[in-house]
Design brief:
With 306 residues, this protein is of the alpha/beta class. It is 40% helix and 8% strand. The protein is built from 11 helices and 7 strands. The strands form 2 sheets. The protein has a 5-stranded mixed beta sheet, with helices on one face. A two-stranded antiparallel sheet has the order 4-5. The longest helix has 24 residues.
């Protein structure tokens, strides 16, 4: 997947680390296309941090070693065009945020009769604060419903391919961003709290929330090539089969069964699942991509999601 070189990015939709505050009472971190970890997997699957299924990640070096908010908002000014988004991973996040929000600004009123409320992405390096607690490369990407922001350390994308087994394609990374904005849509639809009420198990509310976010990411992917910048230029070139396979590789790599069998004890325990199996994550992404419907993506309207 690539951006059109002359597409203009709106960097005001993304802020540098340092935003937010301390842990709010009842604050819930909702992890997603990547809020999973490599160390202490079984322990955290049992404890299930804040109901969001996030697990500690090892340090990734480089950007991941920098302190909270070490970058400035001004340094994102380099992310002005699609050409930068095709070569710079942080600029790719900016362009993806632009595209995802342009999609939901149109799709949410059409399909749910609600106006889309924008959400900023906090693009940090190493560590920053959110209203749901500390955001770090040990937590992974997540959506915080308390301050309605997405938190991403772009160094996670290297882990996604080198440790989790996703390929290094652009759509694998963009799937993570779109998934977290799926949680923002769930929040606006009043569904997100179901994850905390019933956090574990293959048919749990927690798993259904995650699979729905995968499906919502697929909805965006279906129409990503129609999203436009403020000047009416198309942001993204049409997706290829290779692009979709890249997103599917990311969905597979963060399935609970894949994590447990390859990075945990080697035993798969569905009752501890918080995000869903690899097969289910891929299948729900494809449902969104093929049908592009909020009704189809409603994982709470079906008896079984696995």
């Amino acid at each position: 997947m690539s951006f059109n070189d002359d597409a203009q990015f709106d960097t005001s939709q993304v802020e540098r680390g340092g935003g937010g505050g301390g842990m709010s009472p009842g604050g819930m971190i909702v992890g997603g296309g990547g809020g999973l970890g490599l160390l202490g997997l079984i322990i955290v699957l049992l404890l299930n941090m804040c109901g969001g299924g996030n697990v500690s990640l090892p340090s990734t070096g480089s950007a991941g070693q920098q302190g909270a908010g070490t970058g400035s908002a001004a340094d994102l000014d380099r992310c002005k065009t699609g050409a930068q988004g095709n070569t710079d991973v942080e600029c790719r996040v900016v362009g993806t945020v632009n595209s995802v929000q342009a999609y939901w600004k149109k799709a949410l009123p059409e399909q749910a009769g609600r106006q889309y409320v924008p959400a900023k992405t906090n693009l940090y390096q190493g560590q920053t604060r959110s209203a749901c607690g500390t955001a770090s490369n040990q937590v992974g990407p997540f959506y915080c419903p308390t301050d309605r922001k997405v938190y991403i350390d772009a160094s996670f994308f290297k882990l996604l391919s080198t440790q989790f087994g996703a390929d290094d394609g652009a759509l694998a990374q963009e799937y993570v961003v779109a998934h977290e904005y799926g949680h923002h849509i769930e929040n606006q639809l009043g569904l997100l709290q179901k994850a905390q009420q019933d956090p574990q198990g293959p048919q749990s509310g927690g798993v259904r929330i995650e699979l729905m976010a995968d499906c919502l990411a697929g909805m965006w992917a279906k129409d990503a090539s129609t999203t436009q910048d403020a000047q009416g230029r198309t942001l993204i070139k049409p997706l290829s089969e290779k692009d979709i396979n890249s997103a599917l590789s990311a969905a597979k790599s963060v399935g609970d069964d894949h994590i447990q069998s390859t990075m945990g004890s080697g035993q798969v325990n569905p009752e501890s699942w918080t995000h869903g199996s690899s097969e289910a994550r891929q299948r729900w992404f494809l449902k969104g991509y093929q049908q592009g419907s909020l009704q189809t993506c409603n994982t709470f309207a079906v008896d079984r999601v696995e």
